[in-house]
Design brief:
By secondary structure, the chain is an all-beta fold. About 0% of the residues lie in helices and about 55% in strands.
């Protein structure tokens, strides 16, 4: 059992390592909100962060943290829908997330800030709509955030690349 709603959220973690000492962690969550798509970041500080999609209608995504040996998790409601989530930690420590959200009842790919306490703060709706989501995020050497995502807002599903410059 872990964190936010111990009577409703359980996690089973499995830790895998390779000969190169790379560690991957699989967290299988059974929650009251039926999470499905999860994205995790593992740090050499032996801390893992997770962003989990919530499958219930209008359900907010969950942000989780765990420390080695990853058998206890703490979960926080992000306050927003983030479907097909991805997030990165920037060199300055800020966390940026992307995923499908619903703006004025329509699906869009959104990018925002994820606070250290797990609250999502949407910043930008990318040109998107219809079937859209599953962004990939990367920080370029110049500090720009590159966001690849798919969307069907122009009539057929296509892949897009957005380059974002963040204020410091």
């Amino acid at each position: 059992r872990c964190g936010l709603l111990p009577e409703r959220i359980t996690c089973t973690s499995r830790v895998f390592s390779s000969e190169l000492n790379l560690i991957a962690i699989a967290c299988l969550m059974q929650t009251h909100c039926h999470t499905s798509v999860n994205y995790m970041l593992h740090y050499f500080t032996r801390t893992t962060l997770a962003l989990a999609r919530n499958e219930t209608k209008g359900g907010h995504s969950m942000f989780g943290t765990s420390h080695a040996p990853y058998n206890k998790w703490s979960w926080t409601d992000t306050g927003h829908i983030i479907q097909g989530p991805d997030f990165i930690r920037l060199a300055d420590g800020r966390m940026i997330y992307g995923g499908r959200d619903f703006v004025d009842g329509k699906s869009n790919t959104t990018v925002g800030i994820l606070t250290a306490s797990g609250q999502a703060m949407p910043m930008l709706v990318l040109p998107s709509g219809g079937d859209c989501s599953y962004p990939g995020l990367a920080q370029g050497p110049d500090g720009q955030i590159w966001v690849s995502y798919y969307s069907s807002h122009e009539g057929k599903s296509s892949i897009y690349l957005a380059k974002l410059k963040l204020a410091k």
